[in-house]
Amino acid sequence: MPKPTSIPGHDSQDSEVSQKRRSVNGASVETVAPKKRRVFSASEKLRIVRAADSAVASGERGALVALLRKEGIYSSHLVAWRRQLDTHGTVGLEARKPGRKPKHDARELELRAAQKKIAALEKKLLIANAVIDLQKKAHEVMGIALPDLSELEETK
User: Fold this and answer.
1) Which residue range(s) make up the domain with 55?
2) What separation, in Å, do the N-terminal and C-terminal C-alpha atoms of the chain show?
3) Closest by CA position to 14, among listed 35, 33, 29
4) How far is CA 143 from CA 15, 133, 137, 140, in A?
């Protein structure tokens, strides 16, 4: 088993604030904090898409590549943002919550609720028409004359 080594002038214990670690052979190694993922706001995305469009329209060779390098993005970002802008407008560029996409959007849910209500009302109408037909047959069997509805409509 190797003997523990110490470097003269250094503490044998690393403090928590220190970002140095000891490697297997005892030399210090700098650790770098992991980079955080960049998040672009809708206004930044729109600005970059417009700048890319103007770079392409200028016809200058390499203008788009220079813009992508300056902004630190890939061309796939630009393609995705253009697609979002075309399909949903500027609202499509806004950040969404992470996670699963909803199965149905608000319009579809509203449409389904309306269709369900229509089906229930049609069912009630069928029942009401059946009851009216039954009442007519009962009046015929009993020999009771039905009131004339045309007279009621004229008085209104």
Assistant:
1) 17-97
2) 110
3) 29
4) 105, 15, 10, 5
In a shared domain, residues 87 and 112: no
Asked if residue 121 lies in contact with residue 113, where contact means CB atoms within 8 angstroms, the answer is no
Please check the confidence at residue 105 and state whether its pLDDT lies above 70: yes
What is the rounded average pLDDT of the residues 121-140? 94
Tell me how far apart the alpha carbons of residues 141 and 156 are, in angstroms, rounded to a whole number.
31
Contacts of 150 (CB under 8 A, 6+ apart): none
Distance, CA of 22 to CA of 28 (rounded, Å): 5
Digit-coded pLDDT (tens) for 65-92: 999 999 999 999 999 999 999 988 888 8
Rounded to 10°, the helix 42-58/63-71 angle is 160
Where does a domain end: 74, 97, 120?
97
Yes or no: say if 33 and 25 are a contact pair by the CB < 8 Å rule: no
Helix (H/G/I), strand (E/B), else coil: 44: helix
Closest by CA position to 51, among listed 96, 43, 83: 43
